[in-house]
Amino acid sequence: MKILFVHQNFPGQFLHLAPALAARGHEVGVLTMRTGLPKVWQGVRIATYRVQRGSTQGIHPWLVDLESKVIRGEAAFRAALAMRKAGYEPDVVIAHPGWGESLFLKDVWPRARLGIYCEFHYRASGADVGFDPEFPATDPGDPCRIRLKGVNNLLHFQAADAGLSPTRWQADSFPDAFRPRISVMHDGIDTDRVAPDPSAFFELAEAEAPLRLVPGDEIITFVNRNLEPYRGYHVFMRMLPEILRRRPGARVVIVGGDGLSYGAPAPGGRSWKDVFLDEVRARIDPARVHFTGRLPYERYLALLRVSAVHVYLTYPFVLGWSLLEAMSAGCAIVASDTPPVREAIVHGETGRMAGFLDVAALADEVCGLLEDPGARVRLGAAAREHARRHYDLRTVCLPGQVAWAESVADARD
Description:
Helices cover 35% and strands 17% of the residues. It contains 13 helices and 16 strands. The chain has helices spanning 17-23, 64-85, 105-108, 142-149, 151-159, 168-172, 233-246, 272-280, 297-306, 321-328, 359-370, 373-391, 393-410, and strands spanning 2-6, 27-32, 40-41, 44-48, 92-95, 113-117, 162-165, 182-184, 202-204, 211-213, 219-226, 251-257, 289-293, 309-312, 333-336, 352-354.
């Protein structure tokens, strides 16, 4: 069977699924904007496309997002026409629709089944928008803009035959009319690779001498792709004065870039990292708070393995992989009591939780775990077992993804 994957930055969420289907004897191809990939990768043939124009200057601001998706959709459409002219006819197209690439592919291959990766559907209320009162909407037209941001998904629902979402809460963010077509299966964590290691260590490059951290040290970890409010960086920084006061032997290691993944940029051209570091700078000991920037994956895993308490905070939004990786590594976790997190963390069983905005309660939970090694061991072991049972790549998630993809194919007329 011919299966075409479409992803702006392949492999993305299809890192394991595409080669797994190729290994099962399917003829698997990819259409992507990403350059520098080999023509064949793990049995998958790769074709690229390029956009031919930029966004229109002066376009209505509510339409900027939609136009960018139409531009990419047209570029993928033109590339697909060339593929069809060369004789290529997929049985199934599996796409991440988030950039608009798959908007018009059923117009090229109307008999192909279309399965889409349902990551998140923006809503004007009830999820991330308006969740944090510190960052209220400044334009009364924001709900209108958010509604238009969902048009890309709505157009896909008209064409898509099936959807796949990594968590139930993310699936439930989509309109009820399409929800019955969405299956839930996470991308998966390699729990054999992401595992505890009592011999692990993590070195921090300090001015005078490298600092070597090992399991048993009082290390608090916090990880974001970028340090920003959507993932609770501001809340975490406000926790630190009280935690460091109560735990004089603790160190804090913060992983993440200075850029922006979600939400609005920081004011004045600054980074959110500096904005909230400056807010608490006078009340913390900078020698005990370490910023690493982004880390290579193996160093990141080494840090999780030496963590005494890992803190994960998020708006009601896409669940980050770092939470599940921390669980798989056996970390004792303190997390925000927000909807996506509740699928993985049960308070008192697989971690501890407090309200996203409740700085004092979150700090109490961190200090409570630092004071109770037995609770850390129990919660860390339960978190790892939960990750292995529900999110293991090889035994749970990849078989589920393959079954979903083949079911999309099998339903073809």
